[in-house]
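User: Okay, second chain of the day. Same drill as before: sequence in, structure tokens out.
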Amino acid sequence: MALLVTAALTLSLSVTFMLTSAKQAAACLTTSKLPGTWHSSNDRLSRIDVFVSESCGLSIRAYSTCDYDATKDCPWDGGRTKKLSPSRYVAGAQYATYTWNNASEQLRMTRKSTYVSVEDYIKWKSGKTENFTVSMSK
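Assistant: Same drill. Structure tokens below.
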């Protein structure tokens, strides 16, 4: 009998936890319109995937058009995800930083009505800086 009560209690708590997690995930998705896959026609930044974490934080995975096959996207930094941080400079903007052996690259995203504007700011080890902006849509 005790085993049956324990099993029933465990199942009840498990269902409650799953429902709470599902509600939290749904709330996270409605608080931000960034999650999803965004595409551009720019080979250097052809796609970004934005994910929602369990703590309602946002993460990004960036892609370029593959050198060996222009019909495919190749992930930056071995496909590692980067946490998006709130920008202190632009209200509502998010950014992620990638550090390479010869440069530091920052993607700064701002959500517009039907697209995302992504500024790619690159600071080379030589001291030279470069930046360009890409419009991305779902």
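The longest helix spans residues 2-31.

User: Thanks, on to the next one.
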